[in-house]
Each structure stands twice: as C-alpha cells, then as structure tokens.
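Justification of computing resources. Each target in the renewal requires a structure prediction run like the one illustrated here; the chain below, 275 residues long, is used simply to show the kind of job we budget for.
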Amino acid sequence: MAVESESTSVRDPADTPLTFFGNEVKVERERHGIRREDLAKKAACGYSLVAKVEAGTRLPHLSFARACDDLFPGAEGRFERLYPLALRYAFPGWFQPYLALEWKASRLRMFHPQLMPGLVQTERYARAVLRTDRPPNLETLVTGRIERQQILERADNPARLWVILNQSALTNVVGGRDVMREQLEHLLVLAGTPRHRVQVVEDKGNHHGYASPFGILSFDDDEDVVHVDGYPRGYVLAEPDDVRRATDAYDLLTAMASSPDASADLISSILKGYS
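Resulting structure tokens:
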C-alpha cells in the first residue's frame, strides 16, 4: 500500500526543508541573473517545474539539485547536500523517521505479498499505486518514492537489497500491461545485479501465512530494525524480540521461495505474457 501518502496535519510550509530548498534555488537563481528557462534547460525539465520547486510545492529529482550546483557560481555541491533533507520532508511526519533509517541502511531485506516494494518500483508503477489514495501531492510522492532508490546506486557503499515476492505480485496488474512489462523488466535487471537478490514464492497451492509486507534494515554500525508496512501507516520495530521474530520469518520465506536463478526464469516467463 502507499504508506507514504497518508495526509497529516497542516504545517507551515515556510518551516519545511522542502520549501527552504526551493527558496534557496530562487534566491541563487535571481542573485546570478539566471532565468527560469535557463535552469529548466540545464535540469532537462519544464519551466513550470522550476516554478513549483521554487514555491516548495514539488520535490525535484536529484538531477535537478546537481544542475543547480553546476549552474550557480560558487554552489560547490550545496544543493546536492540539501537534497536528502528536502526528500525526507516531502513525506508525512510519521514516515520521516523511517526514511532517515532507510537512507543510511547498508542492507535491506523486503517481503511483499501483492505489490512491488517501493524501492524496486518504476515511476509509472509507483504513480499507479500512489494514485489509488488520490493524494493532492501525487507527483511529489512519485518523485520521492523513486528518489529513495538512490541508496541502491550511491557511490559510497550502495545498499544491498534482498526482495522476496509472492508470485501474485508479478501477476497482479498495476497500471496496465505496458506498466507491468516495464516493471518486470526492471525487476529482472535488479535480479541480475550481483549485490542484489530477488526471490519469488511460487503459487503452488500452499500459503506461507505471511499477509503483511515487512522489511528488515541492517546497518554497518547499529542494530537491525524492522519496518512493517500497513494502512493507514507503517511502523518501525526495534525491540530485539521483534527483530528476531521478523528475521526468523524472513529466513523461512527465503527457504520457501525459489532460488534466485529459478525466480529470474519465472519472472521472464511471466514477462512474456505482457508482451
């Protein structure tokens, strides 16, 4: 479910890092006499997106922050450094503590019975999932979900991802056949990346009993925590007994799932049905 999209109490937008980020973009752009059209061209986006970012109503992609650093004299990477805060505060307050943990995790183990987890979703798949809640800030939520995946590609210690899915997550059509084809192709790329693992629990008539999506986050210098996805909101568990139970459950799912190679073959087979 789209746990990030739940509405929260209204905050003064002037107090949020997202609005601060946008205002800094506007101040620097105007100080150097740079037009919005010039920034839009540099960032490969539209004029209207620049205006919305400056107003603090849209979260841009990380590439936008890097474009600002390239275009504004003396920026020296400031906008890229500000970006993680802007990203975190594009989400409801209750989701932000989890995002802080996810951002510094070195290993993530995730299970989802029906959908692709957010960290493996394509942009069109994410939009189709998030649209179901009819959020007023849909595009910011979509951008935020996709930009969370930066942890898998960062230059310094990219996170390792282990995903276990029920077979129904591959056949549950989200957004249409074209969206599913693109999503399964993306999943296959992840499955073929050496540091990641993708396994599928095949539908053979026996249910494992785990109905709730959950993930285990591991860190280089801290204890594991568990994130339980749910509606209307998810929650984080850090008690040793809770983490131990979640780890045992994940170990059982790993044993019940097909091997990574067999899972990739199954994904490829299902993908052909969307061609």
